[in-house]
Design a protein that fits this description.
By secondary structure, the protein is an alpha/beta fold. Helix content is 28%, strand content 19%. Bound molecules: flavin mononucleotide (FMN). The site of flavin mononucleotide (FMN) has 25 residues, from loops.
């Protein structure tokens, strides 16, 4: 009670802030919808308030439209799924004409995930998206075969990564995050090559290559034979790789792979991620990202933290 029976005014205590910064990009919270699992945003718009997310990454975009792989394209696996969509997309022209007008109205940053078959194609799509209103930046997917480099993934060779990312950097001044593949020998070296070529941030992990077999027919379950494994099964690998990459680069790291709950996201933050992406979990529960935001906030409150910086990269190992 305050003076003379007047209830004391509640002191306005500001709660913890979830804001994070990725280079030039300011996010109101660290939870981003991952590429290929959130369509072009519009697909989820009637279901959740898109503006509550930290950011949205659109599905992979190429210069020309792509039909993708033959069906079946999805297979359930223990604690995860295999997909072989084959980067089906509407192509740049249709994206700008049909998808971007909606995305311009979304009240959180929109990153466009891009890919190409050659260094030149990566440069061209980056150039044509540079400074386009409504696009906060690019996420460059390098998990694609380099057609002029013998079909080996760009992502698996530091020199190829340097070449393709330098090209994108020269073609666009926009915020650029490079999405790394886990299907490599030394992810720290690959991340470093991306940083040296001008990346503003790196995101990881993309899916792990897997194979599911129908034992009755002795044929692959997926039309493409192999597919990309995602979901909870890959989380420990993602967390380990984020931890390694965070120690090898100076740019922000965005973690993903199997995040379903706030606890999963917190593991990535503690391992060194500044932000996280939620992928397959959005198929099962479109509200997963929102629940994770609430859960992270509750954790900060419960631990008396005013923001995320004391948490990011705070993993204690023996000797700390
Ligand atoms: C159906 C599907 C489609 C995907 N498409 C893309 C894509 O177009 N570009 C990309 O960089 N990653 C793509 N990914 C990878 C995800 O963005 C994410 O890196 C991966 O699924 C791991 O996160 P998760 O375990 O939370 O799903 C796709 C994943 C799935 C499951």
């Amino acid at each position: 009670m305050g003076v003379k029976g007047i209830p004391a005014m509640r002191l306005k205590t500001d709660g913890p802030t979830l804001q994070v910064t990725l280079g030039s990009l300011k996010l109101k919270n660290p939870v981003i919808a991952a590429s290929g699992t959130f369509g072009y945003g519009e697909e989820y718009s009637g279901i959740i308030p898109l503006g509550s997310l930290g950011a949205i990454v659109t599905k992979g975009l190429s210069l020309e439209p792509r039909k993708g792989n033959p069906p079946p394209r999805l297979a359930e696996t223990p604690s995860g799924m295999l997909n072989a969509i084959g980067l089906e997309n509407v192509g740049l022209e249709a994206f700008l004409r049909e998808k971007l007008p909606f995305l311009r109205r979304v009240r959180c940053p929109v990153l466009v995930n891009i890919f190409g078959n050659t260094v030149k194609e990566y440069g061209e799509i980056a150039r044509r998206l540079a400074d386009v209103e409504g696009i906060a930046g690019l996420e460059v997917n390098i998990s694609c075969p380099n057609l002029k480099g013998g079909g080996v993934l760009f992502a698996s060779e530091p020199t190829a990564v340097h070449q393709v990312i330098s090209k994108v950097r020269r073609s666009s001044p926009s915020f650029m995050m490079v999405k790394l593949s886990p299907n490599v020998a030394d992810i720290g070296k690959i991340a470093l090559a991306a940083e040296e070529a001008g990346a503003d941030a790196v995101s990881l992990i993309n899916t792990l290559t897997g194979l599911a077999i129908d034992v009755q027919t002795r044929t692959p379950v997926l039309g493409n034979i192999t597919g990309g494994l995602s979901g909870p099964a890959i989380k420990p690998i993602g967390v380990r790789m984020v931890w390694q990459v965070a120690q090898s680069v100076h740019i922000p790291v965005v973690g993903m792979g199997g995040i379903v709950t706030a606890k999963d996201a917190l593991e990535y933050l503690i391992a060194g991620a500044t932000a996280v992406q939620v992928g397959s979990a959005h198929f099962a529960d479109p509200r997963a990202g929102l629940k994770i935001i609430d859960g992270i906030l509750a954790y900060l409150k419960a631990n008396g933290m005013s923001g995320l910086s004391p948490l990011i990269g705070s993993l204690k190992t023996k000797g700390d």
